[in-house]
Amino acid sequence: MKIVSIEVFATQLPLLRPFIVAYDAYHELPSIIVKMTTDTGVIGYGEGMPDSHVTGETFSSTYQMLVNDIAPLLIGENPFHIERIHRLMSNAVYHAPTAKAAIDIACYDIMGKAANQPVYNLLGGKSHATLTVPFVVSILEPEEMARQAAQAVSEGYTSIKIKVGTDPAVDVKRIRAVREAIGEDIQLRVDANQGWGNAATAMRVLRQVEDCQMEWIEQPVLADDLFGLADVRRKTIIPVKVDEGLHGEKEMREIIDKQAADLINIKLMKCGGLYPACKLVAQAEMAGMRCQVGSMVESAVATAAGAHLSLAKEAIFSNEMVGPLMFSQDFGVLTYQKNELILDESPGLGVDVDEELIHRLSSQFARIE
User: Which of 281, 182, 175, 159 is nearest to 220 (CA)?
Assistant: First the structure.
């Protein structure tokens, strides 16, 4: 089997409502879709969702890199040779994980379809019966965040994740308001997205909310400040999760060495796809750390890839595969039942991709063969 063509589409997906985090507010999100075709007629789809604040990749840089630097190298390659494909990409371009993730996901989609197996069977099989997703609340006024969280609980959600990080004093009010609105039995996850900056500010907030029974605090300091993250972990009883501070194996080794976090948030767009994500899971298992698979708020394509990984690995106890719930239009359909994401035994990613919508939403398109 050989790759005979790679098509790259630069699109923008519209959100149902603004997505607001500490470093930006989004009304639509950029998505780079890859369509990979083989000489046997098997087609795979991948997706890259760039975030310049996290990986340094922009919408235009990801598209241009795929078209000009990565895709041409892979024509004639076997998509099953995933380690070789990653080596070719890494030899050509340093880092650039989002661009590489788009290729990686398309390869796994092809492998699953060619083997007539769901991707999770290629990653180890089903280790979890179901995937439970949280309800994510953007940064808003405390009262509105509390209202949305309470509404989500009434709809059957058992876990609420809230975004904070714009104002430490208001963040205390946000956390307290949401906890009061959802009661004591619902999981409360808090994500500062680097917004508190340093360990001193983070601890000033956390000491005021330690009684709120937070499941964890995520990325309370700047991404590069692993010393600060370790300092927070030593000083608080709240479990600490690293997100933006973890990209690939290098950061994972440093996090383990510094004992900087209790939990890790793996994102395919940060590490470069499913193949490198599996390496991070193995490292975490050796260090006795629990894993979550997170999302850049991706379409059904990349969300499905993250869901397959979450289903296959026992060390992954949590996932945030909620992207399709946040878009008014999507390139495929995933099945959600209340707060559960259901994957069936369809081969590959199991996503019936709407190519007409991809073409309609595309601002740029290239075919490499």
Answer: 175
